[in-house]
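= Paired protein data =
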Amino acid sequence: MKKNIFIITFIIIKFILIHNSCIDNQNYCKKCHPLTNKCIICKTDNFFPNNEGGCTGKCTIGKNYCNKCDLEEKLCIECQSNFYSDNVGGCSIVPNCESSYNGKCNKCKEEFILIGDDNGFKICKDKNSLDFKNCKTINKKTGLCQECNEGFYLNAGDFKCSSTENCFKSTYGICESCSDGYYFEKKMEKCILIEDSFAYCKQTIDGKNCDLCKNNYYLAEDGQCTDTIMCSKTEKGKCIQCSKGAILLKDNTCSLEENCLNADKDTALCNSCMKNFYLDNKDKRCKSNRENNEFKHCLIANEGCRKCEDPYNLGDDLKCIKTEFCSESENEICTKCARGYYLGLDHKCTKVQHCIYSGNTDYACDECEDNYYYNNLNQTCMLVKDDTFKNCKMSTSNDTICSVCKSNYYLNLTDFLCYDNTNKGDILYRCSRPNPEMTECRICEDNYYLGSGDKKCSNITKCKISENGDKCLACEVCYCLDLKSGKCFDNEFLYEENQKIYIACNRTNKDGTACEQCLEGYEVNEEGLCFDVERCIEKENNTCIKCKEDPPDYLYYCANKYYGCLQNYLLSNCLRCDNIFDLYVCTECKEGYELNKYGLCQKIYNNN
């Protein structure tokens, strides 16, 4: 008896397994029952187990982008904006979708094909689209035809099918352009191999004259194609005769300008002129460079000469002269040299010997080699003969008075010699030019800044008073001293979240985590921030909820839970601005106004 029951049970289970083919993570089923082989848990709450062992879609408002359901049909009849109803109770971002998962289509309606990569955007494209006319096989990833029906050819340019062999692009099966090496014969509607007589031709009607040339080629008056505009007669694509008013040049191009050597093929405008002429780029005309002293020996000009004939060189005054590195000339004689060069008695420019750097200054040399200094009086690098003068960088008069010292030295205005400025704590630390009394600095070295409070040099920008040049004790107005870093930060605007403590703050605590001393009119709150106590007229739980009315100077006030009241010319008609990351954004407007997409308040207009 027990054996019979076991056999019957086995037969029932086998029958169930055969008729219920449920597989985990397939057909919207997440988990199948091991005995009944029916789905017991569907992938999302848009699906529920059905009697066939799988999952059936259902519509749920607020899920799968659906706003409104048809309870009888269990389909979504109103989707969120830019979504479309599918056949399983959800919404897809792709129209003509039959089933989707989380807005992504996985099956199209009948007569449509799903196109796209799994990692990219998918679309449902009509199988009967003209793009697929006469197409046998469609590439489902690209949405392009990859094999045509018998008697049709796949175009290499647009992947469409055409009855014309060697066609590159077609519309609805009619060829528009041929592949390289072929031209379209309109009467015969064929792509014909190009011969010499039809070089560069794209289309011909009668087989004798070209009607349309390929890109970058022009139709000449003789009905052939050439790469040169304004051509009347060609030979194998080269121009041998120009249209009336144009001149044929040696390179088989046509030019509109007399005395032209080379012209632009697309415009017939001159690019370069013959000898004894220069090209004026303003009007593309060739003008004599012998009749005008301003353009003597010039090849190309535009508001002055830009390129000279060999062996002439272009000076800084835009004139041509044989002397190299000349900046000013008169009657082909150099009168002033470029930086780094000095003018000799022969009116030639010679490089300053022993000069290693010449920048954008009024001096011929900015820095000489070691053991040399620059003498601006004779524009040369002079050898240091006296040890007391060895740290001098520049002298503007004789060899006993220095005017500029080398780096790490300052100029003593009493004896005009250079002294070491690298001792920390000294009044003239990193100073390059002190006052005559040697009591304070007037000009600091590069990358150092002069404090307005102690007239010393510090490597910290906006530092008012420093200690040893690398630790700031007080910052300039509108800057906050961060005691942890010893640097000065802007205390007027919020740039990053970790800088919020600097607004209206004069000095932070030693850890740099909160403000210790605020500007006048502010006090430190529990957040360690500076709270505006003057403009706030109403508080609630130590938070400002109302500020003074907007002032007449277009700097409006708005209540901020961190800082009390803030001023900003953009926040007109704003009550609250609590966005700590962007204080230019309003969070609550006054009555009669509403927030726009930029976080600003705009007036509400009654359309009635």
About this structure: Residues 6-19 have pLDDT under 50 and may be disordered. Residues 537-608 form one domain. The chain is about 5% helix and 40% strand.
